[in-house]
Amino acid sequence: MTQTETLAHEPRTFEQLIAAGERIEPRDAMPDAYRATLIRQIAQHAHSEIIGMQPEGDWLTRAPSLRRKAVLLAKVQDEAGHGLYLYCAAETLGADRADLTANLIEGRQKYSSIFNYPTLSYADVGVIGWLVDGAAICNQVPLCRSSYGPYGRAMIRVCKEESFHQRQGYELLVTMMAGTREQQEMVQDAVNRWWWPALMMFGPPDTDSPNTAQSMAWGIKRHTNDELRQRFVDMSVPQAHALGVTLPDPDLCWDERRGSHDFGQPDWSELARVIKGDGPCNAERLARRRAAHENGAWVREAATAFAARQRQAVVA
Ligand code: 3HC
To answer: What are the beta bridge partners of residue 210?
Structure first.
């Protein structure tokens, strides 16, 4: 075998795979810090999906028609599936799902700040679909190319379903904007309340992001927080115009030279407060997650006992 052929068969190092833009798989050698960063980001992504079921779940019984209830139920169920997908991706890194759940419930790990805001009217369901799932799409499509194989592959199905989420939300708002003046005002009120928290979903400014540079170097992130925030603003402005709503940012304007929008800065002290647990709904969201976990203990015990008996039956 020639030296080139020998080299071609040599297992490549983590650094060589990353430099070649290739995937890192669960059995590949990887730095402990790469593994820890992925467990951190994937676990918090999963926590966000599970907690994110609560704000819209509050409207399941109050959606105005059977069709709207069915669409919202499908969306909320999708989010549960996204969470399970992502916990499975975290487990391929050696994380234990029970530990991750404890980290969430006991406040040692985060979930997205966006889910700590209340859903005050049915228009919030549409605005969450349009803006929150729209922001998720901007953030998650590049993650389909994340250097860690299971994470990138999990994102493919998640992004397809997020597209449905975004469209159902936008269609709901188009219907309301074609309705009564009161319905139009309900939509504008929801946009006013969700616009800035949606911009905060992309994280702090790059200058204040301790993780972005390393995550970009490792190919976990393919764009920075500010790049994705800009992409989201540029996507949302024409959609808002078509919908007939005003985005609550007086600094928003088109910059012909840059070919994108200038916009105002979110209140970063608000993001810091909400991340620390001082948002409008943080206590309620965690209390419900804790109660669901406690109420589901018997299901976990029964499943564990059944699995143990199955193993005994196989051995016997
Ligand atoms: N809410 C809560 N915490 C946030 C946050 C937010 N909006 N933005 C940043 N943070 C946290 C980070 O987790 C980090 O804390 P940690 O080191 O303890 O984890 C700290 O603030 C500094 O932020 P960085 O920008 O340095 O951190 P990251 O490089 O991890 O970037 C991120 C933050 C952009 C959220 C990134 O983690 C990411 O892209 N995660 C995957 C996507 C995700 O989790 N989206 C959350 C919403 S899920 C969703 O939209 C579901 C959909 O169905 C609606």
So the answer is: none
Q: Which residues, in sequence order, are bridge partners of residue 89?
A: none
Cβ atoms of 198 and 129 within 8 Å: the answer is no
Tell me the C-alpha distance between 247 and 253, whole Å.
Answer: 11
52 lines ligand 1 (CB under 6 A): yes
Centre of ligand 1 to C-alpha 296, Å, is: 27
Burial environment of residue 11 by CB neighbours within 10 A (0 to 12, 13 to 18, 19 or more): exposed
Q: Which of 38, 53, 112 to mutate to test the pocket of ligand 1 (most atoms within 8 A of CB)?
A: 112
By most ligand atoms within 8 Å of CB, the mutation choice from 48, 207, 286 for ligand 1 is: 48
The span from the CA of 15 to the CA of 309, in Å, is 45
Torsion angle, alpha carbons of 246, 229, 231, 282, to 10: -70
101 lines ligand 1 (CB under 6 A): no
Cα dihedral across residues 165, 170, 171, 173: positive or negative: positive
pLDDT, tens only, 53-106: 999 999 999 999 999 999 999 999 999 999 999 999 999 999 999 999 999 999
Residue nearest to atom 8 of ligand 1 (CA): 203
Decide if 38 contacts 30 (C-beta within 8 A). Answer: no
Give CA–CA dist 247/203, Å, rounded. 20
Q: What is the pTM of this model?
A: 0.95
Amino acid residing at 71? V
**Is the CB of 37 inside a 6 Å radius of any atom of ligand 1?**
no
Mean pLDDT confidence for 259-274: 98
Characterise 42 by phi-psi region: left (phi > 0), alpha (psi -120 to 50), beta (else): alpha
For the Cβ of 200 lying below 6 angstroms from any atom of ligand 1, the answer is: yes
CA distance 231 to 121: 28
